[in-house]
Structure formats: structure tokens, C-alpha cells
Amino acid sequence: MSEPIASAIRDHPDLLAQSNHHGRRSVAARQNVGGTAVEARTSDVVAFRLHAHHLTDRQPTDGLHEIAGACGIQNSPPGSALLALHARVVGVTQDRMDRLVGEEKSLLQTWCMRGSPFYFPTRRRSRLHHGRPADHRDGSTASDRRRRPRAERTRDLRSPAEARGVRLLPPRDPYTQMRDRDTIVDQKHHREVWKTVGEPGAVLADGTIVGIWRPRKSGRTLTLTVTTFRSLGTELRKQLHEEADHVAELRGATAVQVEFER
To answer: Residue 104, exposed/middle/buried by CB under 10 A (0-12, 13-18, 19+)?
Structure first.
């Protein structure tokens, strides 16, 4: 099985990668013994993964702890966790994060994988499964959910919710840190998205990574330099500017400028 499919459908061990059909990859789900094959488009697999990463719709404010536990939010480079949570939850501010970590102590920043800082909800530390946080309210993990009826799991894959809107994902966002790079970004753009030094953020528009962005702060003004992989329509550009306003606020700026390189 290819890594892209394996990563996106890890909840579905009975899904197998199939050959290309007219240039489009597909996925087939087969019963362990006999049965018919159920196919899903690669776009459905990507949408399924976006939903699992809470990037389909922003969740209510009270969902922050659950999402931090589900995704494993990395705070490297510093400030990335704030932007990653903002991409997934409404009402995220630096003051609120400081309160959750410092006063309420309901969030814990710990140094774990390769010495990187990650945020975890403290109320779920007892629910870590083999070093991984539980990702459902009941403490279940992906392996627990494999026990769901096959029909239910296949339906989730074949009819995922579509992601809409623009998100400015930070460097090392959980969504871009999995191995299936070819699935979410055309290979010709890999060197732009994933750099060893000076990593950029990713522009996610309607569920597709369409470019990269870099911040530059001078005084109280934040400038975002955006490089797109394709042209963006008027509505997406408007939403990108709105997101830039939020990013500026989260980075302590009072003004923002957006510069498009292409």
C-alpha cells in the first residue's frame, strides 16, 4: 500500500490501494474474506484526512482541548501552536493560551518527539495510548474505532465533509507533517513547501494547499509574502486577507500587509 493511502485511511485497515483509473488514483475497500470492492476517489481520502485534522470547519471554543489532544500540536518554531489551533478552533488568542497553560493548567507543553515542544490537554494524560493521545471524547484512539461496523467506516470515507475557506497553516502544522506529501502537494512544489531551513507556512484553500506564506514583522506591522501555485479567485483572495488580519493579531501586530509574489 502506498504511504499516502496508508496515512489517510489508518482508521480503515481493510482499505487497499488500487491502480490508477484514467489518471486518477482510487481506493478499494475489501472484506477480509470475499465481498465486493468499494472505491473512493483520492479527493475523498484527502477530505477524510482534512476532517480528521479538524480543518473542515473551525470548531467551537470549547473544542480546543479535544483538538490539541487529537492532533498533537507542535510549537516549533515558537508561535506555531497558536496558529495551528487558530486554523481549527474559533476564538483562539495568546491570552487564552497563556491562561490555559499558566493558570488553569489544562494544557501542558511538553518536549517529546525529537525534543520538540507539543501541547497536550492535561486531563487526558491518563488516557495516552502507547505514547499517543486519545482523540475522541471517550478516550478512544484510531485502533479503537476500527471496531466500528465496516459499512459505517466506509461511509465516512466515501462521504466526507468538504473543507471550505482559507487557512494559513504554520510551519510544521500536523496536516503537513505526515509522510504522504504527494497526496496533498504536487511533487514539483515539494521543495517550496518543505524546507530544512526557513520553513514557510502553507496556504490551504478549500481543502487544497495552493501556496506558501512567510511572515516579516517591522515594528507593529506584519507583512505576509504569499507565493501561490495557481491563480486564486477574488473570493479566496478576500478570505486570505481576512486570515492575514487574524494572523497579525495573534503575532501582536496592529497592521498587516499581504504581498503576492505570483
So the answer is: exposed
Same domain, 183 and 254: yes
Mean pLDDT of all residues in 122-132: 50
Model confidence band, residue 17 (pLDDT cutoffs 50, 70, 90):
very low
- What are the pLDDT digits (tens) for 155-185? 777 777 889 999 999 999 999 998 889 989 9
Find where cell 525534543 sits: 115
Of the residues 105, 127, 158, which one is the last residue of a structural domain? 158
Number of domains in the chain: 3
Which three three-digit cell numbers place residue 123?
486531563
* The predicted structure's pLDDT at residue 125: 52
Task: Assess whether 138 and 170 both reside in one domain.
Answer: no
Position 172: which residue type? R
Q: Which domain holds residue 116?
A: 61-142
Q: Which residue has the higher pLDDT, 86 or 115?
A: 86
Helix axes 42-52, 150-158, angle to 10 degrees: 100
72 and 16 housed in the same domain: no
Residue at 55 is within a domain: no
Is residue 81 within a helix (H) or strand (E), and if so which, with residue range?
A: helix 80-86
State the residue for C-alpha cell 478499494: 28
Neighbours of 149 (CB within 10 A): 8
Give the residues across from 216 on adjacent strands.
223
